[in-house]
UniProtKB/TrEMBL annotation:
InterPro entries: FAD-oxidoreductase/Apoptosis, FAD/NAD-bd_sf, FAD/NAD-binding_dom, FAD/NAD-linked_Rdtase_dimer_sf, Reductase_C. Its cofactor is FAD. Residues 13-312 form the FAD/NAD(P)-binding domain. This is FAD-dependent oxidoreductase. It comes from Nocardioides endophyticus. It holds the Pfam family Pyr_redox_2. Residues 333-407 form the Reductase C-terminal domain.
Length: 420
């Protein structure tokens, strides 16, 4: 019996959450030579699929045929026969019994585990209790949401999007490919402050208006109106905006309700140590659901593709071989696509100063900004400059001094201009 097989004994390696982090966890288990039984449990009725295209390519006019299957990472043959994973789809876990080492499912069954990775991600916040009662009102997290919004766009709907964060902005961008009338409503005076900081958040907001979206900042939606189907949103100042398709995108909360009473520490996610261990024997966590101490960036819960994928693999390896467990640290990274522009961010947006190195934000333009905290470069933003991002990520990850970072970025900008 190999080391990784010994940890689980006769009980399977179980992963709850059948999406990106969960898939990476089961793949990593096989990569390290685990030969025992693996069970992958998921609420959705699909095999793991990729979420970023839901608000981008799959929603845009002309780029998809309104496909009915989600963009799966792997097909059923590979998951079930290749990886030898038993998939329990469409059945949520409802409780965790850490003394008995088992996960209780909604159908009443109990799945024993030798070790467990929890990767239950996050769920959209609900702005209105009544939202589900009107047709034409949608969250945006799963394949079905994307399909429903696309169907509304195909019908020529007037669109109101509540929340000008990354997802709301991408939906606005995709809706414009259908020439839809789009209103984007944001409660804050500056959008994306948490993701990009105020300077860059304010600059990128201009892309919406440049592309024909009506952006309302500092505006609160008080209610939805309609009989059976949504007909309008009503702002707290009384303004009525006629809309027959409403997308709510006001952020997500970690999916931890099912773990209440389990003994796991829950505080804006599952609280883990640097090794993604919950502190409970055999139980690790990964992806959007995990809060963990991320090296120089401190305790974080990220909602980004790259960290979810990496954490899934690390959590599985650590769970299966705790003696060689290693800490997971990362320089946070995400991208977003709006109106044909690629936005990328690395590091932390919490800064004392933001300095533009190249140009400024504008449709189709290239721009780079660096973020300073004390004497270090802690973050970087790039617009339409994909060749810079991983270099800037390494620079931020090394804790580069501010003057050194400025010199580096300016010299890259000069070389780019010289090549034009
Ligand atoms: C529309 C959209 C676009 C995005 N675009 C980008 C992008 O451009 N760049 C970027 O960096 N990131 C992007 N992201 C974020 C990225 O997709 C997420 O960070 C990633 O999906 C997180 O993966 P995860 O496996 O941790 O969680 P999730 O993908 O949330 O998956 C969790 C899974 O667990 C299941 N689950 C929940 N509770 C239970 C339970 N009790 N029992 C069983 N199963 C359960 C859920 O149904 C879900 O299938 C985007 C996200 C969305 C929604």
């Amino acid at each position: 019996m190999s080391t990784v097989d010994r940890v689980t004994g006769a009980a399977p390696f179980v992963v709850v959450g059948s999406s990106l982090a969960g898939l990476r966890a089961v793949e990593a288990a096989r990569q390290v030579g685990y030969s025992g039984e693996i069970v992958l449990i998921g609420t959705e009725h699909h095999l793991p699929y990729d979420r970023p295209p839901l608000s981008k390519k799959l929603l845009e006019k002309g780029s998809s045929d309104g496909r009915v299957t989600p963009p799966h990472f792997r097909d059923a043959g590979y998951v079930q026969d290749g990886l030898q994973v038993t998939v329990r789809s469409g059945v949520p876990a409802v409780a965790l019994d850490t003394d008995g080492r088992c996960v209780i499912l909604a159908d009443g069954s109990a799945v024993r585990y030798g070790c467990l990775v929890i990767a239950t991600g996050a769920r959209p916040r609900q702005p209105f209790d009544s939202a589900g009662q009107l047709s034409g009102v949608h969250d945006f997290r799963v394949h079905e949401d994307s399909q429903a919004v696309r169907a509304g766009l195909e019908r020529g709907a007037r669109v109101a999007i509540i929340g000008a964060g990354l997802i709301g902005s991408e939906v606005a961008s995709s809706a414009r490919t259908w020439d839809a009338e789009v209103t984007l409503v944001e409660a804050q005076e500056v959008p994306l402050v948490r993701a990009l900081g105020a300077t860059v958040g304010s600059a990128v907001a201009d892309l919406h208006e440049e592309n024909g979206v009506r952006l309302l900042l500092g505006a609160c939606v008080a209610s939805l109106e309609g009989v059976g189907a949504v007909e309008a949103i009503r702002l707290d100042v009384g303004t009525r905006i006629a809309s027959d398709l409403v997308v709510t995108a006001i952020g997500v909360d970690p999916e931890t309700d099912w773990l209440r009473g389990s003994g796991l520490q829950l505080d804006n996610g599952i609280v883990c140590d640097a090794n993604l261990w919950t502190g409970v024997p055999g139980v690790f966590a990964a992806g959007d659901v995990v809060s963990w101490p991320n090296g120089q960036f401190g305790r974080q819960r990220l909602e980004t593709w790259t960290s979810a994928a990496e954490q899934g693999a690390v959590a599985a390896k650590n769970a299966l071989d705790p003696a060689t467990a290693r800490a997971y640290t990362t320089t946070p990274y995400f991208w977003s696509d709006w109106y044909g522009n690629r936005l990328q961010f690395v590091g932390s947006p919490v800064a004392d100063e933001v300095q533009w190195i190249e140009g400024g934000v504008g449709q189709g333009r290239r721009a780079v900004a660096l973020y300073r905290r004390a004497d270090r470069c802690v973050g970087a933003f790039a617009l339409n400059a994909p060749g810079e991002t991983m270099k800037l990520r390494a620079l931020v990850g090394r804790g580069t001094s501010w003057p050194e970072a400025i010199v580096f970025a300016e010299s890259r900008a000069r070389s780019y201009l010289a090549r034009q």
